[in-house]
Every structure is written in structure tokens, then in C-alpha cells.
Amino acid sequence: MISSKMVAAHTSAHSSASAEWIVCLDKRPTERSGEDVDIIMARLKSVKAFERFHPTLLQQICLCGFYECLEKGITLYRQGDIGTSWYAVLSGSLDVKVSETANHQDAVTICTLGIGTAFGESILDNTPRHATIVTREFSELLRIERREFRTLWERPYDTENKRSTLALLTRRCEKYRQCMAGLLAPPYGVMESGPSADRMPDKENLSSNSLGSVSKHLSKKSFVENIAKLHPKPIIQVPSEKILWAGKVLRNAILSQAPHMIRDRKYHLKTYRRCCVGTELVDWQIQQGSCVHSRVQAVGMWQVLLEEGVLNHVDHELDFQDKYLFYRFLDDEQDDALLPSEEEKKETDEELQDTLLLLSQMGPDAHMRMILRKQPGQRTVDDLEIIYEELLHIKALSHLSTTVKRELAGVLIFESHAKAGTVLFNQGEEGTSWYIILKGSVNVVIYGKGVVCTLHEGDDFGKLALVNDAPRAASIVLREDNCHFLRVDKEDFNRILRDVEANTVRLKEHEEDVLVLEKSNIRSSSHVGSSPLKYTVMSGTPEKILEHFLETMKLDSQFTESDPALDDFASQGSDQERLDYALNNKRRVIRLVLQWAAINTDHLQEEESSLAFLQEFYMAVSEDSRLIPALKEQLPELEKVLKHHSEDGKPSQKKHKVLLRQFSMGDEKLQKRQPIKSTDEILFKVYCSDHTYTTIRVPVSASVREVLSAVADKLGSRDDLLLVHLSSAGDKTVLKPSEVSIFSSLSINGRLFTCSREQLDSLTPLPEQEGPSVGSMSSFELMSSKDLAYQMTLYDWELFNCVHEHELIYHTFGRHHFKKTTANLDLFLRRFNEIQFWVVTEVCLCSALSKRVQLLKKFIKIAAHCKEFRNLNSFFAIIMGLGNPAVSRLSQTWEKLPSKFKKFYGEFENLMDPSRNHRAYRLTVAKLDPPIIPFMPLLIKDMTFTHEGNKTFVDSLVNFEKMRMIANTVRIMRYCRSQPFNHEAPQAAKNHQDVRNYVRQFSVIDNQRTLSQLSHKLEPRRT
């Protein structure tokens, strides 16, 4: 029924005579009088669609039809919905939209229905709607519900007239079906020219004549089959088994704990059967377990069920909202929905936490898809921040500035395609969008050449055609099912490019750029009079970047800054004003130097030039303080910094610390670790081809050239020698003369060999490189899993704490450029591999099946405790060790592992999921407080990703945006160590010292071939 307000609104636009029929049509059919029917019939006869209707049929329509008026942009129904009504257009027009995906926002308009057209005939056979119908303008419709329409269709009056009338109905409603058939007929796995999904066809080209014979003779059945093939049912219609089960568990839990939540509800005189309210579902979920931390997280978890159709909005909306909106479980769609039995309730109690954990892992991706499906104008500030965080880890966007990424967050559109072989666009077509692959892969196909390359997650395509305003240079075809994309349309793409250029400020000297700034609307937090805009450095010469920082640096509150507005107003200030200006500038310089000294700490002691600079700077400030007494306040802090570094770091007084085999085996591992410096020296064995060795003493940061010189001196050899890293598997790597800090970068059981080029092929590993032949289970099986995890964490924390932030920079850009050691970082990274091979070695050296099962349980327990201690480095190393092929193939062993441990292991594996750039891990870390021992290989990967994806120099200027991104990764490491490690030790056991010694001296096999052979001996391959 329409409201009185709607009638009033409509009446204001029409005469009272013309509005009278609306009032009549709005009455219930049983309440309509003969006079009402006559008034309605007079109006319908004026509509071309009803001119040729038999009076009896028209009278029946007047008795059972309903009036609907809709504003512009209203969705009448969506593609895939089960129809409930047939419609005829009385005024206005509606767009017919078809989508290849479950996402209605991907839909393309294929034609427009005007006055006199009819649609909705799918109600005759209960097939899903073939298209989405959206009002193009204010429109009036006549609606007939399914039961009455079927009655009219089957009523046996005046058969001949009925045939002609139904032919008219069919002809009118077949119009848009033919349009869809013509549009979609070519199979998507074949390269065809013609309209594509990303091009909107012209209305003029959609007449029945131009559609060709492809759709001309399609029967209704063949058309539906064709649509079904080309548009497979979305995931919401075929939920996966695990999500179906999750929905059942949650429904049963609600009916057990809070049955009042699922009940009939009334809203605007309409009753909705067995519904829940969105806010109540979120409230209930938050109360259930520790894995649900916020309402936003809970929304994502419910969204998982909504996307797969296990939970449905009563009006079929695709987004779950934390509002007073009605949702219904799939089981409650049936009138005879059963309540859970006592046995089911018991089962629900057991499964609830596992179900919540599963949904919490899937929720973030579902929440992201939900946000991306929103119209850009409907995204909240929080939505934009979530999208922006996702964009930070997409390879194709790594070179873009922060501002551009934030702009993209506002315009990106989510697009998904279900079937491999779907063509996104064809070669030669106009470019309308830029795509980024979020999930899956695509083939790039060029006519005459076939598939020229394959693009994967994180890659992008389609940008060139937009930049050059040129046709598509290739066709893009889905390589696998269920691919997800982020799409930027041409208009938004061009606007962002224009905005970037408009907001770029370039400072030039001698007609050359020396500083490039990007203007943003972030308001300054300083006093009134400051600039309302923020300028971010994008690139520049080092000198100009430094000048800019000094000019914009904010001093502490005790310092009074001169007013920039006053400086601009008065071209020549008083002597006092000029003095204040000079004082504040000098204070900024002092503050910058103190910050630099605080960050560099130990590294200052290794650099004579840095110490000399500090001494010279201190003398300069002392000199200035005589003219500007206020600077004397800064001298004590400067003096303290200089004294600290001078006493510990004078090269003439410093004694080199000798590291006795600290990178290999030995009692040194039992001592508390201290940071290794580039100036430290090491005693190291270098082997010859006959397995004899010579011991050399060189700086840790020595180059290969320097090592070979020391070896040649000891051996008395004048031959041209090579320095070779020989692994336990016999793999040889000849080290380049310029490489530095090589001792710490050897593999676990790797050794350094020297030989002539002729002897290279004859090098063989030492017997000691093979590793142990007997496992150590007898030693550590009596040790507490928690004790082992705690001592491992203590040792890992010592190693992690020794890593200087600069080592990440040296490792990423290349140690040889800096001639600095990365020994501390190398040893920490090697520890990861050591733990991983420890797990594999112990399992493969355990011959008894029952003992191997106990080992698996032990390692899973240790991993759980490492996670509890926030030692994610060891946690990942253990899980990756259990996933090593030599362990994972032991099916007999895994079969006997209790289901509880299998479940734990499965959960741990999910945290290691590398998809979406290790999203699961990143979300876990984001919830942790320091101290944290991070998964170091991923930090290295992030640094390398940023370095390789961005040029260090842009037009001969330092790319400072790249430096900023690298600094953000370094800050993660700083945050992890921002609190001291103070976990309480487990209750002291008698073997406490044994545990400590054991975890610091793992003996492992690092030859994967040997481990595989041992594994096959334990459980030969089944024939």
C-alpha cells in the first residue's frame, strides 16, 4: 500500500482527476467497487501497452493490480532474486542491468524500458531474475503479484484473444531478454569482438534487428540455460559446507542461549517471520569469546555468512550492518524450521569457539569486500582508512605517494568474476578502467601471439590505455576461477592525475627542480597564523630536504617561536625579532643533531668522522652561546652526548673484541649476546680442498678481497684464490671480491673454503657438515614445553635486541655500498632457519612411530607457548618445520595425531597464510602489545618490496617518499622493542640450566635431500 504522503506528493504534480485512479488502485482488491474498476480501466486504456487488451482481461487486471511510484535510482529487484511480481511501465523509464558476478555493483546497463513495456515474466516458472531493474527517473508501475498473474495466464476465457494478448505481453517483455542474450551470447572463453562487460552499449544498437540472429530464435528455456552458463549462481546461492555448518552452529547457539533473538517482528504494518536484528547479533557475538574484539570485527564475521547466503537480509541487501535491520538464518526461511535437539545443543557448545575462530579469520576479507562494494560517496572515514591500509601492501601501488593511495581508497571498486576463461576486455577496445589483481591470476593474450604472459596477485593492467588514451593493446582472460579485482574507472583515474599535478609544488634553482612538495589539506596543529596546508616532501636534493625540515620543525613548548604571519607582514623587523629568529633556527639545528645522535648510538662510535662532527658542532654552539646566551641551555645535553660517544668510541683507545667462532658452534652461544660491531674482529677457519684449514683474524665487516689476502698470507700462496661458500649439500657459491660481512651470512652448516679455480669442482663437504645421526629427543622430551619455549624466547630476544635498525637498511640496499656488517641481523635470520631444521631433524631421526607422534605434539605445544610469549619468529619457524615436505609426507604419523592437536596445527597454519600479503599475520600482530619478536623474514620482504618497487632517485633527486616507506617498516621493529622483555619465567625446574644450554646449541641437518631420504626410510612411499 502506498502512503498518504506519496499520494499527496503525486497529486501535487497531477490534477485531482488523474490522481483519483491511484487512490482506487491503492485499495485492497476486495474493497474496490465497480466505480473504482471503471476509473482504473479508463486510465489503463490511455497506456499504449493496454490498448489491445481484451476488456475482460483488462477488467481482471484492474481488480488485482497494484500501483507503485518510485523515485529515481530505486532498485526494484536484483539479478538472481526469485521473482514475486510482474510489472508494466505506466510512466517514466527503468534501466536493465546485467552482471557477470554476484556483485550487483559490477552490473552493466544493457537497455532501458520505457512506457508501455512489461517485465518480470520469470515468475511463471520461478527462475531467478535475469537482470537488475533500476528506475532511471521518477516512474509509475502497475504491479501484479505472482499468484494473480498465473491465474490470468491460465484462465480459459476467450482463448484467441488471450493468445493475442499474451503474445503482446511476451513480445514486450522479451525485448530486454533479447538484449541480454545478444550481449552475452559469445562464450567468454573465446576471443570475440563486440560489446564487453566494461563497455556500456548504446541504446540505438540494442534493437532486435541489430542483435543479430544469435538471440533471435532463443526459446525461454535456452535463454535461461545460456544465462546460467554465462552467469553461474553467486556464492550466496551455493554456500560452502563449512559456512553452512558455521551458520547452523551459531543459530543453534542463539536458540539455546537467547531464543528471544529469533522471532517474528513487525515493521511498518508488515510481519517478518523468524528474524534477528543486526545490532543484537553483534552484541551476542562479542559476548561469546575472546576472539571477537570489536563491533567492526563482529560485522565482518556476520558478513561472511551473508555473502554465502547462510544469513540473509529480509530485503536481500548484500551488506551486513550493525543497525536495527532484520536478518534471517537460512534454516529459518522454511516455515517448518526445527528447533535444535538436546544433542545438537551439546554439539553446538563444543563447536562454538572453533566456529567463531574460523569466522574471525575470514571476517577481515569479507569486511573489506563489503566496504569496497559501497558506492565511493557512502564510505566512511573508517572505511577509507581500512582500504588505505590494504593498499599499502599491494605491489602495483608501492611506487605511489601516500596522498595518491588515499585518493584511490575513495574511488576503488571491487569486481569479481567466478569462472576461468571470462574475458575482462578485448584487444582493440577503448580503455575504460585500470585493474589491480586482488586474488587469482589472468592471461595477457595478443592476437597472433596467444598468451604472452600471466599476471598474478598484486599485479595491475589496463593503465596504459588510460594514460595514452589508446585502444587496449591486449585481451585479458581469467586464468582461474573466483578472481577478485580492484578497479579504477577512467574518470577517477584522470581526476587523481590532475589533482596530483595541481597539488605538486616545485622549487627550482637554475631552471632545475631541487625540491618537490605535495600539498595536502591536513591542518597544522600549531597556533593561529600557521599555514592551513601541510607540505610533504616527495623528492629533492639532500641539502634542500634538510633545509625544509629545519624550516618546518616544531620546537618544544618551552621555546617561543616567532610568528610566521608577523615575519611575512614586516619586511624588516626589530633587532630583537631578528635575534629571536636566529635563536629558533639554531635551536632547530641542535634538536636535529640530538635526534640523529640518539638514533645512531653505537654506530657513531665506529665513525671517526661522526665523532669529529659532534666535537666541531659542540664547539660551534659554545661559540654562539657567547653571543646568544639562551643557547647555553642546550650545551649540557650536547656535552653529555659527546662525552658518552667519545669515551666509548675513541678509535685510538678502543680494543677490538675477538669473537671466537661465535657464528658457528662453541660455548660462546651460552653467554649473553652483545651487539656485534663492524670494528669487532673474528677468528675464523677457512678450509682447503684437502679439508685442512687455516685460522685467520679479520674484522667482521672485512670484504672477500681482504679475507683472501689474509688467507694467502697464512698459506704463503701467490696463486689466484677463490673464496667459496660450501653448503652441507655440496652446493658451491663463489663469493665476489666486493662482498662484505660474509662470516655471518653462511648457511647453518655451511663452511668457507679457499681454492684455485681448477680445484673448485673437487671441493667436498666436511663430515661435520652432515649434522647429527641421532636425534636429541631423549634429552628434551623430559623438558617442559613451556620451559623450552621460554628459553627459546629469551635467546631470540637477545639476538633480536642486538639488531641495529641500520642493519635493515644495509641488508636492503646492499652491505657492500656501506662496508658495514649486518652480522646481528644475519644471526637472527639464521636462528629462524636453525629452529625450522631442528624440528625436521628431530622428526626424521625418530624411528619409532609412537615417539614421532609424541614429537609432533611436543612441537605444537612449544609453538603455542612461543605464540603466548609473543615470539612469532620461533612460532613460525616451528610451524614451517612441521610443514616441511620431509615431515608433512609422514601420513601414518599425522593420522595418529589426536584431533585436538590437528585442530591447533590447522589454526597455526592459517596464521601463516601468505595470501593478501600475509594479511592474517599482520592482523594478529596489530592486536599485540610490545614486547614482540616479529617474523623477521616478512620485515625483510617488506623492505625489499619497497626498495625494488621504487627508484631511489627520481630525476636526479632523492625519492624521499621511498625513504618514508622504508622508515615505516623500520618503525615496526622499533615498536616491537619499545618495551623490555619481562615475561615471568615458568616455575624453576631442576633442569633449568640444561634447557637453557639445549635451546642455544641445536644440532641440525640442513640438507633437504638427506632429510627427504630419512623421511622415506621411516615411511616408504605406498605403492
Structural topology:
Elements: H1 4-13, H2 16-25, H3 34-45, H4 55-64, E1 66-70, E2 75-77, E3 85-91, E4 94-98, E5 108-113, E6 118-119, E7 132-135, E8 139-145, H5 146-154, H6 159-184, H7 220-230, H8 241-257, E9 263-267, E10 270-277, H9 278-286, H10 295-307, E11 311-313, E12 326-329, H11 342-373, H12 381-391, H13 402-409, E13 413-417, E14 423-425, E15 433-439, E16 442-446, E17 450-455, E18 460-461, H14 463-468, E19 475-478, E20 483-489, H15 490-502, E21 504-509, E22 512-520, E23 534-540, H16 542-552, H17 564-569, H18 575-600, H19 602-605, H20 608-627, H21 635-649, E24 658-660, E25 681-687, E26 693-699, H22 704-715, E27 722-726, E28 732-734, E29 751-755, H23 777-780, H24 785-802, H25 805-813, H26 815-818, H27 823-844, H28 849-868, H29 872-882, H30 885-888, H31 891-895, H32 899-911, H33 915-926, H34 936-949, E30 953-954, E31 957-959, H35 960-976, H36 992-999, H37 1008-1018
Parallel strand pairs: 24-25
Antiparallel strand pairs: 1-8, 2-7, 3-6, 3-8, 4-5, 4-7, 9-10, 10-12, 11-12, 13-20, 14-19, 15-18, 15-20, 16-17, 16-19, 21-22, 22-23, 23-31, 25-26, 27-28, 27-29, 30-31
Helix pairs in contact: 1-2, 2-3, 3-4, 8-11, 9-10, 10-11, 12-13, 20-21, 24-27, 24-28, 24-36, 25-34, 27-28, 27-29, 27-37, 28-29, 34-35
